[in-house]
Amino acid sequence: MTTAQNETQRTRTYSWEDQTIGAKVGATLSGMEYLQGIMAGLYPPPAIAHTLDMALESVEEGKAVFSIVPQEFHYNPIGGVHGGVFCTMLDSALACAIHSTLQAGTGYTTLELKVNFIRPLTIRTGKVLPIGTLIHAGRSTATAEGKIVDEQGKLYAHATTTCMLFPWK
């Protein structure tokens, strides 16, 4: 490694909890109970939340709000938050909006995610809020819409999703 590389090298270390704990208990609770338990610290948040340094701020039936402060480790090679980070933030918010309405024993997975990028996120943006809102919950599928806004309400992206619902075993 050259001297220039040593001067620009960054390191990030983080840890996460055993993900099998949440998977086991999550199947026995309603979506709302499980998400509220994560917020209260009763169950570990998903490891991806630690990876991205993202937090579930609030949840109510049919709505989930996360928060994240864009960091340099979120960047793509040209100096903005990578599109995959946008997608993960929105997938999390939209899916949790759906999850908040599910009965105990019901699982889900994303079938489709459509994201529209409006403007870039950078470390200068500050805290942003990925917000998901339920559109429809049926027997086998559910849909939600969402957006990423800053604390002043400025829009950075918006999305829709369809999730498949199934009995959790």
Characterization of the model:
- This is PaaI family thioesterase.
- The protein has one domain: Thiol Ester Dehydrase, Chain A, CATH 3.10.129.
- A hairpin with a 4-residue loop joins strand 5 and strand 6.
- It starts with a helix and ends with a strand.
- 27% of the residues lie in helices and 34% in strands.
- The model has no long low-confidence stretch (mean pLDDT 95).
- The chain has a six-stranded antiparallel sheet.
- It is built from five helices and six strands.
Looking across the biggest beta sheet, what order are the strands in? 1-2-4-5-6-3
Strand percent estimate: 25-35%
Termini separation: 50 Å
Could you state the order of secondary-structure elements as H and E?
HHHHEEHEEEE
CATH superfamily membership: Hotdog Thioesterase
Q: Per the principal axes of the C-alpha atoms, what is the gross shape? A: globular
Can you name the CATH architecture?
Roll
- Percentage of residues in helical conformation: 25-40%
What's the CATH topology name?
Thiol Ester Dehydrase, Chain A
Unreliable spans = none
Domain Thioesterase: 79-156
GO cellular component, one term: cytosol
GO molecular function, one term: 1,4-dihydroxy-2-naphthoyl-CoA thioesterase activity
Keywords: Hydrolase
Summary keywords:
single chain; 169 residues; alpha+beta; Thiol Ester Dehydrase, Chain A
Summarize the structure.
Helix content is 27%, strand content 34%. By secondary structure, the chain is α+β, with helices and mostly antiparallel strands.
